[in-house]
Every structure is written in structure tokens, then in C-alpha cells.
Amino acid sequence: MSNKPITMLQIRRILQLKSQGKSNRDIAVEIHGSRNAVNDYVKLIQRLNKSTEELLKLTDEELSSLVYDEPPSAELDRKFADFQQRIPGLCDELKKPHTTRMILWEEYRQMVHDGYGYTQFCEHLSRFLETRKAVMIFDHEPAASMMFDFAGDKISFVDYQTGEIIWCVVLVCTLPFSGYTYIEAMLSAKRPFLIKTLNNALSFFDGVPLSAKTDNMLQIVKKSNRYEPAFEELAQQWSLHYGTTLMAARVAKPRDKASVESHVNAVYNRIYAPLRNSIFHSLDQMNEALWKELDRFNSRNLQRCDYSRRDRFMLHEKTLLRPLPAGQFVPKNKVEVKVQRNSHVTLGEDWHHYSIPYQHIGKTVHLIYDTDHVEIYLDTVRIACHRRNYHRNGHATLEEHMPSDQNHYARIKGYTREYFIEKGMQTGESTASAISKILEQKIFIEQTYNSCLGVLRLCYKYGNDRLEAACRRALAASKVTYMGIKNILERNLDKAILQTDLFTHIPDHENIRGAESYQ
Predict the structure, then answer these.
(1) Is the pLDDT of residue 271 over 90?
(2) b vs e for 397-426, b when ≥16 Cβ sit within 10 Å of the residue's Cβ?
(3) DSSP type of residue 270
(4) DSSP 3-state assignment of 92?
(5) Cβ(356)–Cβ(400) under 8 Å?
(6) What's the CA gap between 246 and 231, in Å, rounded?
(7) Cα 379 from Cα 363, distance rounded (Å)
(8) What is the per-residue pLDDT for 283?
């Protein structure tokens, strides 16, 4: 008998041709098989002692039971049954670090000396593992859920002012029924930024689904549990505000939110890829480009379909979403700070400085801020409002907050240009010159007062002589800053010899040409 059985259709064809008196050689040519295989099957059919008409009337199952009458041996049955009992344990062992199939097979052969060889061992093990990869197809109900997750790959823009590359995380939100998707880049994955982006996602969908499902991200889930996960207080407030139910996938089970996982890959291919050569200079500019590509993505017809994600959403899902509440959920923070002499207050979270009217210098005020705005209150009265800025050590200054008369400002707290230069002269001329350069570097001179104070206070740690030497060295640079002077002192560069005349004089030599060479 041949190693590879032929089909039942070929068996029936052999019966027909044999009844017509065809030779085995001709039959082999007719069915495109080997002559030896035809010889074996003809001998088997002849041993059945049944006529061709009787055999052709049988069903495929009945004919197969007569033709393929070679049951596996008892030895093979015993070996296979023994291996089937061992397979679950082998699979558990295979999950352990550094464990390979070769090691498991060698251990198996030590226990079962006449067991399977390595090839059959891997074959049976692979077949069992494949059965465990079976997946279930879910039919999602419209407006039942929104799934959201962070894209693994970040996207960046280049800061115009500093040239720094700012990497941003991207949140992907998907309605599983229609596949309608929203994405947004964020400066940070912190909870306030996440809440703001989820607000924008619901505004984009123009409605609220029954539930919002994510993985076990720390911003949302306080304690993971398959049956009763615990959610963060702020996340619960958000869900209560919108009237939706928070849900969390099981730990390490990405298929629980397969829709958003697959759409993350689609975002890479359809949105990231077209923008791969683009350079952005702000978060807003980058999001505008992302949303432009997102619009194309949602409008593109699905594969082998004559409708898009947007079509499916508008026709079957949008009307079933719950209405949005009157306003967005905006979490706010509150801190108490003292107004500095330069008429600014500092938000310590970003270390950015915001101006307030100079009349309130020295008073204690409250900063109430969210991801977009910073409001400043004195008691219950709002005295200033700024758009939030995340540049460290930067200044957000309104001209109307600054005193118009520097003498008036001096009478209030005593900080003027002359005050700092005079203080610098007490240390030395180089210190006064360095402070003078610092005072000229800002549009509003008040923004430089903290830097000047920092320079003057370095003398308490390093002494007047070292501060004067450090300022003398700093003046040789194109820009003088407090951090530059501080670094010189910390690295003891003020003690090194400053070579100021290295390139001040070029010696005469034969390669120098005079003015007559350019007539």
C-alpha cells in the first residue's frame, strides 16, 4: 500500500475504469497516480469479493471503511495515549524561562525509553498548542462600548524656542461596532491629560457609549481584578459625570480589547506612515496633522466593503449614543503660593512663572489650574488668568501686570536695575558686568531679577573672589546666565587660567595677502 492514501474520488474512478477493462498502467495515467499505488488498491478491491456495481452504490464513508481497513497498532495507541496525558504538563514547563523543546524531549525519553522521536514529539506538541490558540468572534452591539489604549510608539515635535525634541504619547479610542476611531497626541500620559483627551474623544463621537473599556493602566485602574477591578477616584468621577461604566480587561489579555489593539496597528499604517517625514513645531500643529489623516482613515472604505467606518457609525451607531452632558469634566488642582518681588508666581509642577498685577507683590494667593489654564485668586477674587505653559523656567508675562514707572516699583520693594548693578559692584566689576548682561536678556526686566539674586547669593557659598573670577570667565561667552556662572564655580573652572589673547593677534606670514590682491 502506498504511503499517501488516494482520495475516494480516485477510488471510484479506479472501479469504473477497471470495469471497462483498462489496465493498471492506463488507470494510473488516467488518475495521475503511481502504478504501484493502483496495483495495491486493485488487489485490495479484489479481496473484498464484491462486484463493481455493489461497491459504487456504497457511500464514501462505507467504501472508506472497506478500503482503508488498516487500524493503528495497539503499540501506537498506547504510545499516543501516554503522550496525550503528558502534554499539559509539558506545555506548563515550556512557559518557564530558558526551557526548550529539546530539553523537554530529552527528559521525556529518559522516562519513556521507547517514546516518540524528537520530530514526532514536536509535531504532537505543536498540534496541541494550536488548539489552545482558538479565538472567539464577538458581535459588538452598537453604542455599547468605547475601547481606548495608548499607542506603543510615540510621536514628536521640535520646540521652536529651544530646539528640543518633545516626545508625545498618543491615545487611540475606538467604537468596536463601527470601528469609528479618535486619536490625540498628549504631552504626558498623566491622569489629567488622559481625562482631557477622553473628554475630547466623546465630543468627537458626539455622544456617550454605555461603557468605556481599557487595559489595567495605572491612571484608571487602582487595583486589578478579573471580576471586580477597583478604579481611581478621579476616573470614577469622570464616568459618573458622563454616565458611562468603566470596565477593565483582564491582566495580560489584550484580546479582551481586540478592537482597539487592531486599530492601534491601523493607526501606525494609515496615520503614522503618511506623516513619517513631517516635522512639527508644536503639539497643536502635530494634532492637526494627525486629525487630517484620521479623517481620511475613517472615510476610507473597509476592505471588500462599499462603506466606511464613518458610514457605519452615522447609519447605525450615532443615534444610539447617550447625549453629552452640558459641560466637560475638568479636574482642577489648587496650590497656595506667595507673590515674588518680580510680580510673578511659580507653578511648581512645571516650574513656570506667571505674572500678576504688581500691586499684590508679597501677598499670598491661590493658583487653581487644569491642563489648559492657570487662574490666580486673592481670597475669592480672580486677579489673573493665563494659558498654561509647560516650559520649565519660562515666564508668562502680561504687560499690564508690570509697573509702568520703575521708580514706583523701586519704592514698593527696592528692586531696580541700578540696585542689582550696585550690589554687583560690591563684589567686583566683572560681577556687575555679568549682572548687567543678564538684565538685558528679557523683554520685561522683572523676569531677570531672580537670576540676578541667584548670582549675588553665590558669594555666600564660594566667596567674592571666586564669584568675581567666575563672572570674568562667563563674560567671554556669547550669553551670560546664572546656571553658566554656577557651573563654572561647581567645576572649579574659575581657578583655571583664562586665555583671552589666544587668537587676538595673527602673525605675519607669506600666505597673507594685502588689499592690492583684490583690486
Answers:
(1) yes
(2) beeebbbeeeeebeeebebbbeebbebbee
(3) I
(4) helix
(5) no
(6) 8
(7) 10
(8) 93
Which class in CATH covers the domain with range 145-320? Answer: alpha beta
Indicate the domain borders of the chain. 8-67, 74-131, 145-320, 333-401, 416-495
3-class state of residue 353 by DSSP = strand
- What letters, b where the CB count within 10 A reaches 16 and e where it falls short, cover 347-375? beebebbbbbbbebbeeebbbebebeebb
- Neighbouring CB atoms inside 10 A of 102's CB total 11
511 SS3 class: coil
Residue 447 has pLDDT above 70, yes or no: no
Largest distance between two CA atoms of the chain: 126
| 226/219 Cα distance (integer angstroms) | 18
Using CA atoms, how far residue 367 sits from 182, 184, 401, 486, in Å, is 32, 27, 16, 31
Query: In sequence order, what are the beta bridge partners of 333?
Result: 369
Q: 8-67 adopts what CATH topology?
A: Arc Repressor Mutant, subunit A (1.10.10)
- Answer whether 151's CB lies under 8 Å from 170's CB: yes
What pLDDT, on the 0 to 100 scale, is given for residue 502? Answer: 46
Give the model's confidence band at 17: pLDDT under 50 very low, under 70 low, under 90 confident, else very high: confident
145-150 and 211-214: which strand pairing?
parallel
Residue among 254, 165, 260, 167 nearest 212 (CA): 260
* Reported pTM: 0.57
Paired residues of 222 in beta bridges: none
Q: What values do phi and psi take at 414, rounded to 5?
A: 85, 5
Alpha helices in 355-428 (DSSP H): 406-413, 417-425
Provide the pLDDT for residue 4: 60
- The residue-averaged pLDDT of 89-103 equals 88
Q: Cβ-count burial of 22 within 10 angstroms (0-12 exposed, 13-18 middle, 19+ buried)?
A: middle
Q: Which pLDDT belongs to residue 513?
A: 63
C-alpha 153/C-alpha 344 separation (Å) is: 38
Q: What is the DSSP string of 183-250?
A: EEEES--SHHHHHHHHHHHHHHHTSB-SEEEE---TTTEEE--SS--EE-HHHHHHHHHHT-EEEEPP
